[in-house]
Amino acid sequence: MKIERFKADLSLLVVAVVWGSAFVAQRVAAENIGVFLFNGLRFLLGALILLPLTRRRGSNALSLGRLSRKQFLGIILLGSLLFTAAAFQQFGLQFTTAGNAGFVTGLYVVLIPLMLALGWHQPSRPSIWIASFLAVIGLFFLSTGGSLSINSGDLFELAGAFVWAFHVILIGKLVQYIDVPRLAVGQYLVCGVINLAVSLSIEANSLGSVAAVWWTVVYTGLFSIGLGYTLQAVAQKVAPPADAAIILSMEAVFAAFFGWLLLRERLSVLQLLGCGLILFGMLLAQAPILAQARAEKPEVL
Questions:
Q1: By C-alpha distance, which of 230, 120, 223, 225 is closest to 175?
Q2: Quick one: which H or E segment has residue 153?
Q3: Contact present, 76 and 190 (Cβ < 8 Å)
Q4: In angstroms, rounded to a whole number, what is the distance separating the alpha carbons of residues 68 and 76?
Q5: Which of 29, 37, 118, 297 gets the most CB atoms within 10 Å of its CB?
Q6: Which residues lie below 8 Å from residue 27, measured CB to CB, with a gap of 6+?
Q7: What is the DSSP letter of 122?
Q8: pLDDT digits over 85-106, tens only?
Q9: CA neighbours closer than 13 Å in the CB half-sphere of residue 100
Q10: Where are the domains positioned within the chain?
Q11: For residue 146, is it left (φ>0), alpha (ψ between -120 and 50) or beta?
């Protein structure tokens, strides 16, 4: 096993922890601030946080003139996907339960290998398909407790799942020819600007509510956006999209853990079983890598 792949998978697991912990802050924000204003502020904050790092590396992330037309359009598309996926998710939550939303959104775990096979003719290995379905079953138990009632909001969540899947796939493509700091800052700026533009149009009265939940903007902007999405881009320079999706599905497990720890939410036996299935799916997806590591381990004389 190459050390780069191990670091990439570990980075994705850190991303899952960060996104899972941010679930608490996002729930608080959803009850006090407009969706587009909240997303706009936190994505722009994430971009501002990373700007000093890009200058240290000797590249100015705002020098869009140095980008090729293909790179520029890629960043615009990536930022637009972030905006669209987040919008679908929040709109869906107005008409469905949080459990349904978590499960349906998590379907991107199995949508990614399907989209790669159909759209890019990149079939995944059998263990990825098995791991993906295990993760989906685990998400079903964890998010819904074994009971799912379909309603109109789930259609928004399903549309969002397709967008999230495309976002993960596109990142895996773009990081191969755009440096990560510029890619990260670029997509955050695009997403943030679109959100603020929409917010100014339809959420004119929500600006005053920011003071009450400023910490949710800071926490999610610093960790969920600045750290989480950037680590995802770095890791996907090495980790394939299908593998990345399975590891990122651990976000639901960590969200449940932090909900139990900070919000005193309880987990049923079925939900705990769901956590176990997601974990098993993640380990199964990594089995070939672990086997390769054992094969490459030098013998001790």
A1: 230
A2: helix 153-174
A3: yes
A4: 12
A5: 29
A6: 263
A7: -
A8: 988 887 787 777 666 777 788 8
A9: 19
A10: 3-293
A11: left
Residue 241, sorted as left (phi over 0), alpha (psi -120 to 50) or beta, turns out to be alpha
Summarised one tens digit per residue, pLDDT across range 223-240 is: 999 999 999 999 999 998
Compare 182 and 59 and report the one with higher pLDDT: 182
In DSSP notation, 201-252 reads HH-TT-GGGGGGGHHHHHHIIIIIIIIIIHHHHHHTTTS-HHHHHHHHTHHH
pTM of the model: 0.85
Determine contact, residues 80/190, Cβ cutoff 8 Å: yes
Cα separation, 276 vs 264, in Å, equals 20
CA 153/CA 238 separation, integer angstroms: 35
SS3 content of the chain, % helix, strand, coil (to 5): 80, 0, 20
Dihedral angle at the C-alpha atoms of 31, 185, 72, 112, nearest 10 degrees? Answer: -60
Please state, in angstroms and rounded to a whole number, the distance separating the CA atoms of residues 25 and 27.
5
